[in-house]
Amino acid sequence: MAASSGSLGWNLVRVWTLLVYIFMFLPIAVVVLLSFNASQFGAFPMTGFSFRWFVELAQNEAILRAFRTSIVLGLMTALISTTLGVLASLALVRYRVPGANMISTLLIAPILVPEVVLAVALLLFLNFLQINKSFTLLLAGHVIFTLPFVILVVQARLVSIKRDVEEAAMSLGASPRQTFFQITLPLMLPAVLAGALFAFTISFDDITGTLFWKPGGVETVPTQIFAMLRNSISPEINALGTVMIVMTVGLPLLGIAIARRLSSKSGA
Amino acid sequence: MSVEAREARQPWILLSPALTAVTFLLFVPLLFIVVYSFWLRTATGADQIGFFLDNWQEALTDRFYRDILLNTLKIAAITTLVCALMGYPAAYFIARSKGNKAILLLLLMLPFWISYIIRTMSWINILGVSGALNTFLLWVGVISEPIQMLYNEQSVILGLVHFLLPFMVLNVFVSLDGIDTNLEDAANSLGATRWQAFKQVTLPLSLPGLAAGGLLCFVLGAGTYITPLVLGGATDAMFANLVFEAIITQLNWPLGSALSLMLLAVLGALVLIYNRYLGMAQLMKGLG
């Protein structure tokens, strides 16, 4: 593509792309910047550099509670969703299942349905079954909403694992169970971790369904931020935003790094 | 049991937990709200079970609902168009750049990982009366009074574009990256200009990716109620806001069911049309 590098068209595309990156990052950078503002108000001008909003954040009981709820919910969602997703992916990738395409579509359906509609249907149905707004409802909602993502991620990684190694183990006398736990599972580990991380992040970030499902008085981090926004934008929200940015960007990067590490080890 | 029979049963054992979850947490609830939408919420707050067409009549004939539905589709369409115009060149640049594609792509995907509510509210810091843009314009001297740029339809669209752009870029990138660059070179050597080669070879080949990105932007954009609540004004409600109102505020669940199903029908029709002509595979490529 050497011919294109100097041309006017290519340079326009380059400048356009730069502007798109600025568009994506500027608001986020401003959140981080303002979270260190010493001013009373969550806005310009910057009156000085301060950590006070992070200190206040760490002492805000409501926010800490929201963090605990979000983390417990995210971990449980990841555990259940990944278990269901990995089993289903194994079946779809490893076996010749009649109607596999149809089954895939069914399993992906929760993300093809608008989340608001999914939220309403689940809330009303479980309420009909006498399961009121509760942590159980919240967990059920998060599981069904994250399951398709886990299946997509795990399936994509699973395809690349060769069956030869497993067959070799079996021919050397390993039982199917031994083969699964000693060969297949370690090979699958990066895929499983990637799926779990994906489920956790999506659960941690969800607000659309959560606002429908959460019981009164229970807040996750996003719904807590949403409730705080009702008043006005406080410097505390910017500080909380910065913490969330570090968490949601840091965790996946860490996950990618771990996955790389593991797969390069198992590849060697 | 024979070995073959066991072998044949195994995938179903593996699939059953996930299929059970999808059945009882998605399909049965969807069927349930179809039934529910024909019930009636009485003044006392109890549901009257039966077959009443009242909710559907209200949802389908009330101008208020129709106008908001059309406005929602308009907002989603503009958002999708802006995402395509902004995202296509960026995806093209990433796919054809000689630098580190993975890093460029990862950089654009980072905001995708950042909390939706944070990204939405971050625009208040930019567009608000004492936000970055007003502060800058006052400092330069272009304006003497801060202007209110928030809480209107434009700020809602802006927030949606910021939220959905990564979906567009990723899908277009996947499809551009799969195109053999030799095709463009061949067009060039046959006398086509760069622009002609792009217009007649690369662009048509990348349309499936553009369509997949477009579908995602449209469906996700049309189904949101948080962005209008945070960045929109009192008159910028979208259709999902009506659903939220009916279910959470008015507690009129039968009407909320009918409105949800209306939204599902409109957006579901789009997904089905897309599936009919392009298939789900393209969409899965971009998501996985």
Q: How would you explain this protein's 3D organization?
A:
The complex is a heterodimer of chains A (268) and B (288). By secondary structure, chain A is mainly alpha-helical. Helix content of chain A is 76%, strand content 0%. In chain A, helix 3 crosses helix 8, helix 6 crosses helix 8 and helix 7 packs antiparallel against helix 8. In chain B, helix 9 runs antiparallel to helix 12. In chain B, strand 1 and strand 2 form a beta hairpin. At the A-B interface, helix 1, helix 3, helix 4, helix 5 and helix 6 of A face helix 1, helix 3, helix 4, helix 5 and helix 7 of B.
How many distinct helices of chain A? 11
Sheet-strand content of chain A, in percent, reads under 5%
> In terms of structural class, how would the helical and strand content of chain B be classed?
mainly alpha
Q: Give the CA-based shape of chain B.
A: globular
* Mean pLDDT value of chain B: 90
Low-confidence stretches of chain A: none
Order of helices and strands of chain A: HHHHHHHHHHH
| Global geometry of chain A | globular
